[in-house]
Amino acid sequence: MFSVIKLASETLTENYSPSLFNYFYETFPQGFIVAEKHYKVVGFILGLKTNLKNARILMLSVSEAQRRQNIGSELLKQFLMKAAQQNIENIELEVRTDNIKAIKFYEKHGFKIIYKLPKFYQNEEDAYVMKKTI
Fold it and tell me: Collapsing DSSP states into helix, strand and coil, what is residue 3?
């Protein structure tokens, strides 16, 4: 778990309490998927089932050195497959409005911007809510 928390602190702009990772894993273990390369954590996705038919992706991160190698795409595909096995129909996530790379990544995987959340992040930056029906 420490390697995931460390990667999150290196690659994500929000600060997350380490206890959150354990809580989310215990709440929906199917939504916590880790990518390893040579026994080292290089990426992870963390999602949560919000009700019987819906889930939310809370975090998706790949180490800087391992980007552009389809690790993020594979993590997302695994999450979507596990969500479908749980009869989940809709996946939502939030992304910074200025994070063009992430927006394009999610659009490539079938997510669409639904609406904007003003001052969503700790630093009061705006977010888009994106959604995909599976």
Answer: helix
Amino acid identity for residue 54 in this structure:
N
Give 83's strand partners.
none
Which CATH fold topology does 2-133 show? Aminopeptidase (3.40.630)
Whole-model pTM?
0.89
Instruction: List the domain boundaries for the chain.
Output: 2-133
22 forms beta bridges with none
Instruction: Give the whole-angstrom CA distance, residue 23 versus residue 101.
Output: 29
Alpha carbons 75 and 63: distance in angstroms, whole number: 13
Q: Which two tokens stand for residue 103?
A: 């927006």
Express each pLDDT in 75-95 by its tens digit: 999 999 999 999 999 999 999
**CA dihedral over 128, 124, 67, 8, signed as positive or negative:** negative
